[in-house]
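Possible regression after last week's pipeline update?

I re-ran a chain I had predicted before the update to compare outputs. Posting the input and the new output here so someone can diff against the archived version. Not blocking, just want to make sure nothing changed silently.
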Amino acid sequence: MSQIRIANKQDEPHIRALAKDALEGISEEIDPDGSDADLKNIEWSYFGHEGVFLVLELDRTVVGIAGAAKFSDDTLEIKRLYVKPDLGLEKDLLSLLDMLLDFACKMDYRVVECSRIAARFIPAGMLEIKNFRNDG
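New output (post-update):
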């Protein structure tokens, strides 16, 4: 059975490995000193910037990630959203996205945007259905 929870420091190596897998799956390389620098310190990059980072576990193994942080006073940016393919966890991907959108509502963000990479993993039209804008 799967479980979604808040990420912690011990998850960081697993998060980085999943992010690397996600990027490789779309023919991108991880850039730890550039666009992927947020993965060096999840706590600071997300929780320290009025955001949240979630992990999806299956049998005590991290198989999915979702992270979003403040982009501006009104905007939350989804930076990470990925679930390992071929595990039949599509519903869990949508649950991760729903949790990020719920977080945005509770934090009074008016707009949710996606990074270019995260947008590649969000089902088409999902943010628009939730009345959020997706500029990914």
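Follow-up from reviewer: compared with the archived run. The CA atoms of residues 19 and 82 lie 8 Å apart. Marking as no regression found.
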